[in-house]
Structures are given as C-alpha cells and as structure tokens.
Amino acid sequence: MQKPSLPKGTRDFGPVQMARRTYILDTIKETFQLFGYQQIETPAMENLSTLTGKYGDEGDQLLFKILNSGDFLKDVSSEDLEKGSGATLSKVSEKGLRYDLTVPFARYVVMNRNELTFPFKRYQIQPVWRADRPQKGRYREFYQCDADVVGTDSLVCEAEIVLMIRRVFDRLGLKDYSIKINNRKILTGIAEAIGEAGKEGPLCVAIDKLDKIGWEKVQEELIQRGFSQDSTVKLQPLVELGNDIFQKLETLKSFLKDSEVGQKGIAELEEVFEILSKMGENLDFVDFDVMLARGLSYYTGAIFEVKVHGVSIGSVSGGGRYDNLTGVFGLPGVSGVGFSFGVDRIYDVLDELKLFPAESQRGTQLLLVYFDASGKDYALSLLASLRKAGIKTEIYPDEAKIKKQLEFATKKEIPFVGICGDQEIKDQVLALKNLSTGEQEQLNLPEILKRLT
Amino acid sequence: MQKPSLPKGTRDFGPVQMARRTYILDTIKETFQLFGYQQIETPAMENLSTLTGKYGDEGDQLLFKILNSGDFLKDVSSEDLEKGSGATLSKVSEKGLRYDLTVPFARYVVMNRNELTFPFKRYQIQPVWRADRPQKGRYREFYQCDADVVGTDSLVCEAEIVLMIRRVFDRLGLKDYSIKINNRKILTGIAEAIGEAGKEGPLCVAIDKLDKIGWEKVQEELIQRGFSQDSTVKLQPLVELGNDIFQKLETLKSFLKDSEVGQKGIAELEEVFEILSKMGENLDFVDFDVMLARGLSYYTGAIFEVKVHGVSIGSVSGGGRYDNLTGVFGLPGVSGVGFSFGVDRIYDVLDELKLFPAESQRGTQLLLVYFDASGKDYALSLLASLRKAGIKTEIYPDEAKIKKQLEFATKKEIPFVGICGDQEIKDQVLALKNLSTGEQEQLNLPEILKRLT
C-alpha cells in the first residue's frame, strides 16, 4: 500500500490555517472593494505562447509546463531526442501554469478591451506556480494578491494605494511598518546627475547595501561596476539624506536641477503627497526612499515597497507604475499602477507578532452534548432555532461518553457546549458551559440566543 | 505581435461573473460553517502516484500531467520513443493537476490522521482540471465545492446534508427542486429480490430511462443486458410506485422482505427521516427515488442528487455515504458521507431564472464627479469620511468632462453619483443623484452617510 505524500514545495492548508488566511484575505478584499476595485479570475493554465518570453530566461525555466493530452510523443522523432529537451519542448507541451497574475491580467485586458470600462480597477487573488528550488518560506505554489488600475495616469491612484495599504495594516493590527515610496524617474535623474546616465540599475543594487556594508564599500563596488571615481563622490549628498521627507525633496530638487526627468519624478512624488494632504491624510508610515528600485526595468513612475519592522520577514508588499502593460500582446499605451500583498508573508508576520485575533480562527460556537438517546433527541430539537439565529452549532453525531464529546469541543476550539441532561430536558433549558472559564449556567433558548448572537 | 487567446475549455471570470460567483459561494460557505464544517485547501498539483488508478482508465487519460522541470527527456531513450507515450509517461512526468477534491481529501486525511479531530467535517472549494473534450457547459477547469464528514456512521449527517441543501437553495431563492434520496443497500436488495444479485449497476442504468423510453423498452433493455424475463416481471411493482414517501417505504418493505441488506437500507432511510422529524423539520423537497444510483461503485449507504425543475440544466448537486475513503492509501475503515454543489450549474440556473439579486453584483456605491480642479479637491476631501463609514466610494481619477464621468458610473453600474460643483462646495453638500431614478438631492455629509449605509 502506498504512503501518500505532497509534491515538493507544495502545502495543504488545514482548518486553522485556512481560517487565518481567510481573515487576512477578507480584510484585503474589503479594502479593495471600498476603493472601487473589482475581482477577476483567470485560468490556472495559459498557452505557453502567452507565458514565455515575459519573465526572462530564468523565468521561462521556472514555468511548469503541461504535457499535451493523448499521444504526446507523436511529433517527437529520435533526432528531436538527440537535440534535447529545449528543442523538443514545443512538440510535447503547449500550455503552462501561470507564473504570476500580471501577465494573465495583461492578456485579459487585451482580450476584453472593448467591453471593459476604463479606468479599470481590478484585483485578483489566486495561486501561481514556479518550479523554484523549494526552501524555507519559498513554495512552488503560492497565492498572489494583486490590485491594479489601468487606463489612467492620475496620481490619485498612487495616493489611494498608500491608503489601502494603511487600511489593511490598521485592520490587521500592524503598527510598526514603513511604506517606502520612490519614483523611477528620480533614479534615472540621479544616474544622469552623477554623469552615469542609464546606469541606475547597478547604482541601486550597490546603494541597497549601504546599511549592511557602509559607504566606503559601496563606493568600491560602484567603481568595480564601472562607475567613475568622480561619480561616486557626486553621490555623497544622497548618502547623507536625513529622515524628513520634505527635507529630502528639497535636497533632491537641487541635486537634480539639471535633470528634466529627475525633476519630473520629484514633481510626481510631491503631487502624491499633496493629494494625500487634500484627502485630509498625513504621511504616517510613508518613507521616501531615494534608492528604492524593485524590478526597475518594468516600472516607469512610482515604486512602492512595504516593510514590517522587528520581524524576521521584511518586505510584505510592493508595486509601482508602468507605462506599457499590454504592449507585448499588441496593445500599446496601457499605463497603470499596481501592487501586490504577499499573503504568505503577512501570515507569517501576524503569526510571529501573535496578531491573529481568536475570533479569526473560530468556527463552531456551540456544541450540543448529551448522555443518552433522550438527550440526543432534545439536542436535535434545538438545532434549527440556534442555527436560524445564525449561531454556528453542531451536535456530536454519535452517542458517546460525555468526556469524548467535551474533548471533541476542546480539540475543535469550540468555546461553548450546551449540555442536554435529564434536568435540562425537564426544565426546557440548556446547561451552557463556557469551556475556557468553566462557568456553567442553565439558560432557556431565548436566553441562549441572546448570549451567543 | 501575437494575439493572445485562452486555452481551449478554460474561462476568465470578469467582475460581474466573479461577483455573482462570490454571492453563490458565500451563501454555501456560510451554510457549511453554520453546520460546523471547516474549510481546507490542497495543492493544485499532486504526485501522479496519488492520482492515477483512482478514476478508472478513462479518468487517468483525462489527468493533466506536468512535465518534469529541467531536462525532462534525460531518461528517455529511442526505445522508449518506439514504445510510445504510455510507456514513456512516467519518465517525463511525476505530477498532475487534481481531477477532483475527493482524492486529495483522502490523501489529506491519511497524512494528517493523527492531528485531525474526528468526526472531521471539512469543506473545500477549489478548481479541478480534466482534459475532457470541451463542449457547452463542460470545461477543462471548473470549481468543485465539496463538503464531507468522515469518521462517523451517524445518520444525523445525512439529515444535515438535506438541511444544508435546503438552506442554500432557500437563500438563493430556488423554490422548485427535489432532493432525490436513495440508499445503495436498497438497490442491492432489489437486485437480490428479483434474483439478479450483484446486477444493481445495469439495473439502474436501464431503469433510469423509464421516464424517457417507457417500461416496455426498459424491460427489453434489461433482457438484452442478461436479465431473466422472470426478473423483469418481478420488478413491476417498483415501476408503479406512487409519489408518497411513506407509501413507497411500505411497498419496498414487503418487496425486500427476504433481503437483509435491503431491509437495512430501508431502516437507514427511515432513520434519516425520523431524525429530520425530531429536528422539527418536514420532508419538503425530499423525494425518495428508489432507482437513484450515481457512481454506484463508490457509495455504500445514502445517495443524494438535487435536481432543479423547469430549467435546461437538471442536476446541480449530489453525493452519498461511503465506507472506505482512504483504503487505497493504506488507512482502512474511514467512513463518511459527502456531497458537492455544482457551482457552474447553480450559476447557470440562477441566471436562467433571473434570480441574481441586483446587490449580488454591486460593487462601488458612490462615484464622486466634478467639473474642475476645485471640485476635484472638494471630492478628495470627502473620500475618507465616506469610506470610513463603509460606503464603497470612488473618485473619477482624471479631470474629464462630466458626461464621461457619468458614463463611467453607468457602465460600472454604480447606483449613485455625488456631484461636486461650485454651489455644492459653497453649501458644503453633495448633489446626490440616483442614476436609476434620476432623482437628485442636495445632502450634507451626515445625511449622505445616513442615506447610503
């Protein structure tokens, strides 16, 4: 007899995990909806022609491919076999599992462009699959939770992303975090201003290590990456930026005074802050991080990243503005801004900080228990009224020792049991026992409904 | 530039479809939870060793297989090529997409048997994949929505399944349907009673056509399938059963008087009805269908099927009791009862009967529109209060003609717009316009909160 197992890098979610995940996702969904975002879903499988070439060579390697149905080898010759897997792939597979939610969303927008109402605000919460080497915190199947608005350049969207993140974190009880924000145009401007135009990529990679290795080592690395001595000296003022957002903006304005694109980036960022202010909001949790880069090649405007402080997992959300979501599918000029909550990471953070409220994993509220057949009949007669009142109620289905029934309630973390004994039947009440305090009261049905709803 | 497309047999769900699906699934989830069922999720991919051999040869053919990552051809020789796809499969693929939720659930129970609290009531709502030939109403990716309780033989579970179906259908506004119920042991008994023990399979297939082809043709078919003339004559009383459940039970009792298993089946069914009666419930919508079979080989006790009347799609839910969920994974004796809601079919039925409430697809409640920059600033200043009160509110992000903004609201089916003109700013009110009636009123913020919450 085989012993079953799970494929490497995949997970089951049991009742407690599911309840907690639902708690997180419901908070996020409610927030998205409050801001006018609408949910869509796309299929797990996409044509390989849709998926390949979008994630770089490395990404293509990590796509899970679906074997063609039926006689999948019918077009494969022994010459193909010699050429190897790469050359033969297209003959045995034409579909793959989605690698993210962005490419399927782009495909969806292109295929439905005539029916959609723009600006189109969508959210999407579905698993994605990557044939990555599994390791702690990295899975081959995991949920992504994306919100994007496409078809508008309005910076109101950027401001609302900040507000959505704040609302979700507030609801989840997270109090110590930063929403790092930057603008790709500022990065481009910095590279220009130090005389290394176009090199913002390596610049960010090196500067990102500032906290860890210090300014001198960063300078060394920049020079190794081909930056001139002079350019690294020019960078100096950016290393000494303080924490005040408006101070930073002033410093940058003078630093980027000769870079048109840089000035544009500053203006965009200032407008986002101004919109927040018009909305009566402050800049709590917002951190202007001049060197924040994240997937540089894709973003063209705002860049976001959310870090929770004081936990082993840092980044839990990120995103940014892009100019050209759908160009690769023949529809140019679709710009938008989006971001993504890392559900697995938020789960781990809440777990580490013990922020899951007890209610978040509570299922059944009341278990009816009994000693004998007449007690069971009495319990059965009460169920409809309890459930009609919305009280999640179970009856222990088998006649069993009361101890076993109580153990069942404890294991399932059911907070109350309703004991149906002879006296209770006679008095037409329930002995309602709170399993965490041990308190027990004889209550009639209306009293129980009042207590538990 | 490539024109993107969807793989055959797969679908996108846009905002309206998703909202309606969510309405159905929320109704089902709420009901499952009210009865103490807990949600789990399992991975999309399972090892092929878990999946194959569970669904018959035909099912194995319909499994989507995942190509091994990396050099998938490394173990394939040219002799393998000659032997063909069947012989080579295990060398290029070791995982597949789940075909249903039952086998993954069985695997889950076996792998977690020491942690689970039995009786274990679980529900699971996830897509499954089958490489079926796509046709109207049949997809290669579709959601299943299963509830099972395992680790108990109590017939309370059967009674509660009837109640859960009734609650879901009541909430969805479905009024004309039957919950067909039968018991596998009755079918076994009937085959015994007519002297054709063990032939309940072909018996049911033939009798199932009674309504369509009539009793004479059914008899002919039975004889073709190897039944004796005598046995078909003995069947006669079952063809003439009336509609009354208790009448049917009485007839069957005498028909099955010499079949021990048949008597047991009747007793079980009677007990389910008795439990319902003890719960203060009637047998509304319950239809004892003596010939109901459904996946005969699997079920050992109760069998359920739900049909909606007066619509093109009939069966929308089904299930039954089984003795041996996990035997194939080395854990014998796990009995239980489960059923499944066909979400796609319920969707089509509600659509056909126009039963989706308008609220079920409503997202944003209020769009703030404006004529100029000062109107936009005013709108921005109102958003926080509206959203804080839980009103799903959007602002049109770009400064655009008011006509365009109103069109956006209409297309997105937003019921109210709040017009922010100069007079409104002066009076610190909003012109709240109901887009379906055309009514318009000047209301201040507290009045609007009162109106829209």
UniProtKB/TrEMBL annotation, chains A, B:
Biological process (GO), any one: histidyl-tRNA aminoacylation
Catalytic activity line of the entry: tRNA(His) + L-histidine + ATP = L-histidyl-tRNA(His) + AMP + diphosphate + H(+)
Entry-linked SUPFAM superfamilies: Class II aaRS ABD-related (SSF52954), Class II aaRS and biotin synthetases (SSF55681)
Entry superkingdom: Bacteria
Domain Aminoacyl-transfer RNA synthetases class-II family profile stretches: 1-350
One cellular component term from this protein's GO annotations in UniProt: cytoplasm
Oligomeric and partner information: Homodimer.
Name of the protein in its database record: Histidine--tRNA ligase
Organism phylogeny: Bacteria, Pseudomonadati, Bacteroidota, Cytophagia, Cytophagales
